[in-house]
Amino acid sequence: SPLIELKETSYFYANSKTRALDNVNLRIYPGEKIALLGANGAGKSTLFKHLNGILKPSSGQVIVNGQKISRKNIKEVRQTVGIVFQDPNDQILAPTVEQDVAFGPMNMGLPIKEVESRVSEALELVHMSGFEERSPHHLSGGQKKLVAIAGILAMRPQVVVLDEPTAGLDPLTANKVISVIEKMNKDMGITVILSTHDVDIVPLFADRVYVIHHGRIEAEGTAREIFKKH
Ligand code: ADP
Ligand code: ADP
């Protein structure tokens, strides 16, 4: 059964007349690697903000682990589905890398020893061991992205959602980020959903692709199927 399901989900921003999401249906199964492909303004970020209850649909449903997101399960949902935002500066909250990665697991109320071991494990996974005492604000864009990913991994989510994870990165750094994402999927069994407007990323990465345009899902299939049609 799907880990995440959107059923006829639509969303209007209060100050806008158009639908940012228009009757979206999708199903994501455990262990999948999904790419959401669409131009700027297509609705990718809006869709992602529905996956862990940052936004509540204007109509339709968002179901995680068989349960509709509600006030009762929102905390659980946020631990199940971790989101890495496009701009790492939105996610950096602490003066050191170590404290930054510790923020999520601390918030979960885990014992300090457990927090420490999760932080060092997560930093190792993203190849950022040794940066513990550094200020995250002074890292490169790629390093900030990796620290943001570590912060999400330290919460041990079932699903990691990444909004445009390679945007603004040079090709070498982008490949490094993609290989970390591959590793969390293959070795850790994490379901991964990423958005991109870069068609070169998709065949490299995705088992399955959704194409979004004007808030609507216009196509769904394997990368091969999608690029044959478009
Ligand atoms: P993408 O992530 O694909 O670039 P978004 O989800 O950010 O697209 O935006 C989808 C649509 O919703 C766009 O038309 C955008 O202008 C609009 N939008 C996004 N955020 C807001 C907001 N806070 N208020 C009003 N409209 C918004
Ligand atoms: P109903 O459909 O009966 O209005 P919902 O299940 O939509 O009830 O919501 C029940 C409560 O959970 C409401 O107070 C709502 O604000 C909250 N809620 C629902 N979805 C979300 C969400 N995605 N994020 C945060 N709170 C939510």
Describe this structure as you would to a colleague.
Helices cover 35% and strands 26% of the residues. The chain is of the alpha/beta class and 230 residues long. The chain has a 6-stranded mixed β-sheet with strand order 6-7-8-3-9-10, sandwiched between helices. A 4-stranded antiparallel β-sheet has the order 2-1-4-5, covered by helices on one side. The chain starts with a strand and ends with a helix. The mean pLDDT is 94. The structure holds adenosine-5'-diphosphate (2 copies). Belongs to the ABC transporter superfamily. Keywords: ATP-binding, Cell membrane, Membrane, Nucleotide-binding, Translocase, Transport. It is found in: Cell membrane.
How many strands appear in the DSSP assignment?
10
Helices, by number, come to: 8
The general outline is: globular
Radius of gyration: 17 Å
Query: What's the arrangement of strands in the largest beta sheet?
Result: 6-7-8-3-9-10
Low-confidence stretches: none
The small-molecule ligands in this entry are: adenosine-5'-diphosphate
Class per helix and strand makeup:
alpha/beta
The biggest beta sheet reads: 6 strands, mixed
In terms of DSSP E residues, the strand content is: 25-35%
Give the SSE order as H and E letters.
EEEHEEHEHHHEHEHEEH
Percent helix range = 25-40%
Distance between the termini: 30 Å
Average pLDDT, all residues: 94
